[in-house]
Amino acid sequence: MLFPGQGAQVPGMGVWLREHHTLAVELFDEASDVLGYDLAELCQQGPAETLNETIHSQPALFVVGIAAARAYSEAFPSVQSRVVATAGLSLGEITAVCYAGGMQFADGVRLVQARGEAMQACADAVDSGMASVLGLDFESLQSVCDDALGANEDGLVLMPANLLCPGNIAVSGHAVMIERFQPLALEAGAMKVVPLSVAGAFHTSLMSQAVERLRDALASITMSDCRLPVFSNVDGKPHTSADEIRDLLARQVVNPVQWEASIRAMIAAGVDGFIEAGTGRVLRGTIKRIDRKMATQGFGDGS
């Protein structure tokens, strides 16, 4: 069971779930009470600019992901019983931990709200961002980053941040470096460089101020060992220990996302199919680039 990360949000997300599953309505209501605003209305009507803000998109994706996974469990109990592992992309990893029993839903909402606020504060402090790069392998992309940085006497940041699948890696860093990077990447053979709908340079040292705030938020909630292994973005390995997961979730915001490594590790462990719970189909696309024969399914938006 896989859960998407920031960038998958879109006005209308969660509407199909709330129309067809009572539990989704209940989860949205509970989340709205915790957040202090009507999350269902924001998800349904936007505007997109507000929904795209980190402080709003992270809770929205978390709630839609949990609602989709629980609705799937009700709709397909025989398949649900075969789920043996879980993972999520960046923010989606918290959704995965909650799904695996590592925290209560309301605590998960509080955690993603705190995470979004901490990361937004870091993003507001410096002009930064992310971009998806299509068509370059890791070594070539790293070489372009090095060329763009040059001597780097100003201490600017530019680095691979989301290692999604072959030919699809996101870079993250100062906005001026993203701008400098784009023509160099195209010259090096990239097919496309696409700016991402995120507030700042996630998964780099520019998020370092968010780590302690996130550790405090993690310490304030009760966490349990997970009933399913959660494959971590930090190391691409399975974890069930609450203490290990608490540490990894804090470290994740300043470390590159090892998504491809996580998927390959799950396949190597015997996983024979993946369900993308929530909105969008980005994760299914990455899996087909990793192993085109792997079975995939989406659940959460009626498609």
Structure description:
With 303 residues, this protein is an alpha/beta fold. The protein has 14 helices and ten strands. It has helices at residues 15-20, 22-35, 39-45, 48-51, 54-75, 77-80, 92-99, 105-125, 138-149, 175-187, 208-219, 242-251, 259-268, 282-290; strands at residues 2-3, 87-88, 128-134, 158-165, 168-174, 192-195, 230-231, 238-239, 273-277, 295-299. It has a four-stranded antiparallel β-sheet. Strands 1-2 form a two-stranded parallel ribbon. Helix 2 (22-35) packs across helix 8 and helix 11 packs antiparallel against helix 12. The model has no long low-confidence stretch (mean pLDDT 96).
TL;DR of this structure?
The protein is of the alpha/beta class and 303 residues long.
N-to-C CA distance: 17 Å
User: Going across the major beta sheet, what is the strand order?
Assistant: 4-5-3-6
How large a portion of the residues is in β-strands, by DSSP E?
Answer: 5-15%
State the helicity in percent bands.
40-55%
Number of strands: 10
- Secondary structure class reads alpha/beta
What is the H-and-E element order?
Answer: EHHHHHHEHHEHEEHEHEEHHEHE
Shape verdict: globular
| Largest sheet properties | 4 strands, antiparallel
Count, helices: 14
Poorly predicted regions are none
State mean pLDDT (0 to 100 scale): 96
Rg computed from alpha carbons, rounded to a whole number of angstroms: 18 Å
